[in-house]
Amino acid sequence: MSKVPWVGTWRPHRPRGPVMAQFTSPGPKYYVQGATGFVSHIPTKRRAPAYSMHGTKPLISKECFPGPYPVQSSMTHRGKKSSPAYTMAGRPRVKVETTPGPASYSPERSQKIVYKNAPKHSMSFRYEGAKVDSTPGPNAYTIPQVLGPYTVTTATSPSYTLMGKSKLGCFHEDLHKTPGPAAYIKPDTELYKKRAPKYSMGFRTKTSANKLGPGPAYYEVGKVSLNKSCAPVISFGIRHSDYTSPLIVDVY
Questions:
Q1: Which value, to the nearest 10 degrees, does the dihedral of the CA atoms of residues 217, 222, 223, 225 take?
Q2: How far is residue 104's CA from residue 98's CA, in Å, rounded to a whole number?
Q3: CA atoms within 13 A on the CB side of 46
Q4: pLDDT at site 60
């Protein structure tokens, strides 16, 4: 075996990534999209349609079957078999188109279409002339002002406005904005202290007249049955016949 000559601690190795110094062009800086697949396809190349593959459908369970249902007697395994059946209905109505007759046309009005004739004009009123745009005159314009704060073509000096003295910072400025003592109403002392009784003076009331009550002779002592037991009282009436005709009154 031949010995490897000693070249020092450095050994040649492959770089982990592309080195820019090894390329004369921009190199791996740019990324060219691929022409295969559907995702990130290069836009300059034609792309075929992509289809997705799915798995097979699961098997149908044996328990999933229809329940009992009524089957017609005329139904066989080859289809419905029965005798011809007809339906009785009324005769259909036929719509007859009513076309115009010879008298509905006016051949005399077709002369100006079929034959050559002179032009015919009708007399009417004169049309109104075209409306002329009325432009404003010289007096419709105003010359811009040269005096005052609102000028267009000239420079103006600053304008000041004289106003009254401001209350801001004055001695009578109300910083709290609260009402004064005169804005409140003095409450009555009876609201927060013990109140004395009050009496009102009225007229003398009239005495009630002596009512006359019933005397001892007014009562019947023998007919008292409220506080004592009483024998039953029975009244005798009139016996009615079953053959008596009822009273019939004529109503007019």
A1: 120
A2: 12
A3: 1
A4: 67
Spell out a b/e string for 213-237, using b for 16 or more CB atoms within 10 Å of the CB, else e.
eeeeeeeeeeeeeeeeeeeeeeeee
pLDDT beyond 70 at 79: yes
Rounded mean pLDDT of the chain? 77
In whole angstroms, give the CA distance from residue 38 to residue 14: 34
* Per-residue model confidence as pLDDT tens digits over 105-149: 887 777 777 778 788 888 888 777 666 667 778 888 888 888 777
CA torsion 186-188-194-196 (nearest 10°) is 150
SS (H, E, C) the chain: CCCCCCCCCCCCCCCCCCCHHHCCCCHHHCCCCECCCCCCECCCCCCCCCCCCCCCCCCCCCCCCCCCCCCCCCEECCEECCCCCCCCCCCCCCCCCCCCCHHHCCHHHHHHHHCCCCCCCCCCCCCCCCCCCCCCCHHHCCCCCCCCCCCCCCCCCCCCCCCCCCCCCCCCCCCCCCCCHHHCCCCCHHHCCCCCCCCCCCCCCCCCCCCCCCCHHHCCHHHCCCCCCCCCCCCCCCCCCCCCCCCCCCCC
Q: Which two tokens stand for residue 120?
A: 């015919």
Q: Is the pLDDT of residue 213 over 80?
A: no
Cβ atoms 157, 168 nearer than 8 A? no
